[in-house]
Amino acid sequence: MGHNLEAPFIEQRTILGRIKAGMKERLAVEGADSIRDMYISGGENVYPAEVEAVLTDHEAVLEATVLGVPDARWGEAGHAVVRLRPGASCDAETPHVFTRSRLAAYKVPKHVTIVDDYPRKAAGKVQNHVLRRTLLSQAG
After folding, report:
1. DSSP for 61-93, written as a single string
2. Other Cβ atoms within 10 Å of 13 Cβ, number
3. For residue 31, is it left (φ>0), alpha (ψ between -120 and 50) or beta?
4. Which of 23, 44, 109, 135 fits a disulfide with 80 by CB distance 3.0 to 4.6 angstroms?
5. How far apart are the C-alpha atoms of 88 and 124, rounded to whole Å?
6. Per-residue pLDDT in tens (0 to 9) along the chain, 140 residues
7. Sequence-separated (6 or more) residues with CB below 8 Å from residue 96
8. Residues 4 and 46 in one domain
9. Which range of residues forms the domain containing residue 94?
10. Phi-psi region of 124 (alpha: psi -120 to 50; beta: other; left: phi over 0)
11. Are residues 60 and 124 in the same domain?
């Protein structure tokens, strides 16, 4: 019989849905793309899926994508790109303040951009590489 003895171990290392040691394996099993987009900010690993989960806890945020972008001080910093719920409004500072109260400082996105929609593949997945290229061209 084939038993997956590792699954309970991976699950134990996840606390309250936040990424802890071993979450990388769980995300890979669940098929999350954000694991490939892990970035290092000030020497610390930041997993976008964790930041995105916190951002979407905000009542105005429908969807969030977090990307690592070059930063002179930290090497890389988070750039959150959020879509708001229909009829909702908020400025770029609101998600920043919201995440600051729920995440370690190095995980809080340094930049926040609010968009109407994301570049997507035919299957509906966000094209992070296109989004990153757009953000970098606007910054530079």
Report:
1. EEEEEEEEEEETTTEEEEEEEEEEPTT----TH
2. 14
3. left
4. 109
5. 22
6. 444 444 444 444 444 444 444 444 444 444 445 455 799 999 999 999 999 999 999 999 999 999 999 999 999 999 999 999 999 999 999 999 999 999 999 999 999 999 999 999 999 888 888 988 888 888 76
7. 80, 108, 109, 112
8. no
9. 40-139
10. left
11. yes
**Which CATH number goes with the domain that contains 88?**
3.30.300.30
Count the domains in the chain. Answer: 2
67 and 18, same domain (yes or no): no
Task: For residues 8 and 55, state if they share a domain.
Answer: no
Both tokens of 140, joined, read 């530079």
Strands (E), 1-140: 39-41, 44-46, 61-71, 75-84, 111-115
Please compute, for residue 80, the number of CA atoms within 13 A of its CA located in the half-sphere on the CB side: 34
